[in-house]
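DM from R.C. (forwarded with permission)

"hey, sorry to bug you on a friday — could you get me a structure for this? deadline for the figure draft is monday and I only need the backbone to look sensible"
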Amino acid sequence: MRAAPTPASTSGADPRAAGAPLAVPPRPAGRWKPWAAFAVVVLLTAATLSPWAIGFDADAIARNWRNGADRIVKLFSPDWSFFPRTVEPMLETLQMAVVATVVGAAVALPVSMWAARPTNPNRWTRGAVRLALNVVRAVPELLYAAVLVAMVGVGALPGVIALVLFNVGIIVKMVSETIDGSDRGPLEAGRAAGATQTQINRTIALPEMLPSFVNQTLYVLELNVRASSVLGLVGAGGLGLLVDAVRTYYRYDQLSLIILEILVAVLVIDLVSSIVRRRLV
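My reply, with the result:
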């Protein structure tokens, strides 16, 4: 049998039962901030597109869009008969990417430890290494290749050297930041046990950083295939020389075939990298 509601239960916690008006919580402050941020983005975009910034000209686009559309249409019609001429440059491109990745990774492994705080407590040498790497990363690989072609000559060698510099800058940056963000407990324990910094780096830090190091190395291998395809534009070997030749004669159908080959190579490398990562990392 149900008990009748008592006055206390009626006037207690639920105000709706007593007919009292509901207390509406105040609106959260700062609701205008997302709209203000959106307005700032719109203003910056409009200022960037202005003729005084990047020279955006809608009339020029309207006049010349057909030229670009014709070239895009040609890119959708690859010239398959051109394939035999692309095999050797494609193999040279892959060789450049693999050699540059191996050499760059070998150089980047110890440098990554010199650039990280837990594995190099000396702030002066660490700062000098980071400053040198910032300079290396600030220079585009295409500029490296142009200078090296003038020094070494036309061919794959200047392209490989440019890619090695490019790889060292990326791998050291990513791996050293991983070391900086890792747990320092094992390193402190090794230091408390009386081990030298070299022993700590070799026995504790190196096994911990290897997964990140392998990840970044596989990533730059994929980047190298695309980058080495461009370095040939300045005479650094690989597919870039062929790209420059067909572009000069407006053979976009042949250029389309080269782009497809690069795409297939990148997809295969990405697939192999994923398999290696699952097994090693």
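R.C.: lifesaver. DSSP finds twelve helices and no strands in the chain.
me: no worries. The chain has one domain: 83-280.
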